[in-house]
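In response to the reviewer comment on reproducibility (Comment 2.3), we provide here a single inverse folding case reported in full, input and output, so that an independent group could reproduce the run without further information from us. The structure tokens appear first.
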């Protein structure tokens, strides 16, 4: 049987980078790692509708910086920055009570969220929770990702689909997703949809082409070229759907 490896950790030595950027002695390393896991889980749950792409955590001696990459920055920032200030207070109360730590929160706009596997997976899960037909959701998701400029996409949902007695899995995709190519910039994310019949799992792979420097620079280039490539696909599709001229008799 084949062994499944997370696409990100599989490429961490070539084109990937860590989401936690700090160093620590061996004694405090487990505490810091545990804090990172709990903070990320809390933020993903609280800001689920904010289309979070990834959360970067940076530590120094007395500062704790969180960078939120999102497709909806206004949802997090709020009016005149009130949302960020409230988020700082909640993090201080929950995780750093009694500690002299300065919390900084930076919000970075990723532009079009259709090229982020995390954003797409959360959207599919929320659509299934809202009782939309899962096949329609998967088809619309694949079309939206390909129009956004991706070279390939794969979506898998598994569980008691449509309330069936026996759990099963369904998949949809388009293009290519080369999982064994270490230079391939592959976005991968998982999400869960909590329905009245149980939990439905969602997995999303998005292939953005080969990378020869770093994933961060490739993501910026992909988002810049995504709009133009998407327009080309739409124009090509409209030409294909144009009715043929009737032949003269």
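Designed residues, in position order:
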């Amino acid at each position: 049987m084949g062994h499944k490896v997370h696409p990100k950790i599989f490429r961490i030595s070539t084109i990937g980078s860590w989401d936690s950027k700090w160093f620590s002695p061996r004694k405090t390393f487990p505490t810091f790692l545990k804090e990172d896991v709990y903070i990320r889980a809390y933020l993903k749950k609280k800001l689920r509708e904010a289309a979070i792409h990834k959360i970067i955590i940076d530590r120094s001696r007395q500062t704790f910086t969180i960078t939120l990459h999102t497709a909806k920055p206004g949802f997090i920032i709020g009016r005149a920055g009130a949302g960020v200030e409230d988020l700082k207070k909640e993090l201080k109360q929950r995780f750093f009570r009694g500690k002299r730590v300065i919390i900084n929160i930076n919000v970075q706009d990723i532009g079009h969220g259709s090229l982020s596997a995390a954003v797409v997976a959360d959207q599919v899960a929320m659509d299934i929770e809202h009782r939309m037909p899962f096949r329609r959701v998967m088809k619309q998701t694949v079309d939206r990702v390909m129009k956004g400029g991706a070279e390939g996409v794969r979506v898998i949902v598994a569980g008691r689909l449509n309330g069936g007695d026996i759990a099963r899995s369904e998949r949809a995709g388009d293009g290519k997703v080369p999982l064994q190519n270490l230079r391939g910039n592959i976005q991968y994310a998982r999400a869960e949809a909590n329905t009245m019949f149980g939990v439905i799992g969602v997995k999303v792979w998005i292939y953005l082409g080969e990378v020869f420097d770093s994933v961060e620079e490739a993501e910026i280039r992909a988002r810049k070229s995504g709009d133009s490539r998407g327009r080309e696909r739409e124009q090509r599709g409209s030409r294909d759907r144009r009715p043929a001229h009737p032949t003269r008799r």
